[in-house]
Amino acid sequence: MKQLWGLALLLISQQAISVEALSVKKVTQGIYVHFGEHQLPNTHNHGAIANIGFIVGEKCVAVIDSGGNPEQGMALKKIIQQTTQTPICYVINTHVHPDHVYGNSAFKTKGVKFIGHHKLARAMAARSQFYLDRAAEQLDIKLTAEDVILPTIEVKDTLILDLGNRELTLTAHPSAHTDNDLSIYDKQSNTLWLSDLLFRQHIPVLDGSLNGWLAELEKLEKNNYRYVIPGHGAVITDWKNSLQPQKRYLTLLRDEIRQYLKQGKFLEDAIENIGYSEAKRWKLFNQFHRKNITSAFAELEWEE
Asked: Cα–Cα–Cα angle for 236, 241, 243, nearest 5°?
């Protein structure tokens, strides 16, 4: 009887693992990524749509974004524990959006420090109630205030983390995709984890500054990286070429909106006419393009 009961427990355990399993890809030694699907957050994916993962050093593991819900965060934690015996020391949140931060509570244990842009805490505080109120209806998940884990370490310019013979440089960027974007550079492998400062296949989503975003891309384009990990889409091994689609789209928005403003045209005209030559180049174009125009128009109409 005990053997049967033990077998039942084993089967239940195996079933749970299969249900909660999170696939990760080893990009290079010590760097692992789970790639999200190009979908809107909904009640089927529960907000788990972004690229998330971790970097392993000799002494510490750094989690890079924790996922779109606590269950995904727990699944990521299990994968880390199955991959390495090295303890998790840091959870780095690259920006405020829910698909990157709502797995945080899975990692809230003694010894784990949460790191973010110096404007992240303010952004999370400002938006958290809105996100929490809609989580059940839009994502079919239950979130509480305890799932809003603010950074305990804030990055104002750059911060060096030593994971044990593995040095990470965290950079707080000016307003771009959001006003709280953080990137992670792994010196050992020459890998830049850019998160949502870079989109592939998925249309870029503007929630910060169009001019600022283009300026940051201009700076980053001057550098050479072996690997670049976007927030959505596949890993990049040809950095400067792969950057061009996003630059083209954002530049097109800027230039065409500026032209409309010079001609005295209104937002409604811009929404109906600007940027549609890009429609077939991007997934989720119809869901985000008009919002991008609205955000960019509001910014550019105040240019001198």
From this structure: 70
**Domain extent listing, the chain:** 20-238
Amino acid symbol at 129: Q
Task: Output the pTM of the full model.
Answer: 0.91
What tens digit of pLDDT does each residue of 7-58 get? 333 332 333 323 357 999 999 999 999 999 999 999 999 999 999 999 999 9
What is the separation of C-alpha 270 from the centre of its chain, rounded to a whole number of angstroms?
28
H or E stretch covering 56: strand 52-56
Beta bridge partners of 160: 169
Find all residues with CB under 8 Å of 94, minimum gap 6, and list them. Answer: 64, 65, 100, 116, 181, 182, 183, 184, 193, 195, 196, 231
The class that CATH gives domain 20-238 is: alpha beta
- Closest C-alpha to 47, from 1, 97, 119: 97
Residue 28: Cβ-neighbour burial (10 angstroms; 0-12, 13-18, 19+)? middle
- d(CA 65, CA 53) in angstroms, rounded, equals 7
Classify the C-alpha dihedral 92-95-99-105 as positive or negative: positive
Buried (b) or exposed (e) across 82-108, using 16+ Cβ within 10 A? eeeebebbbbbbbbbbbbbbbbbbbbe
Q: Return d(Cα 243, Cα 35) in angstroms, integer.
A: 18
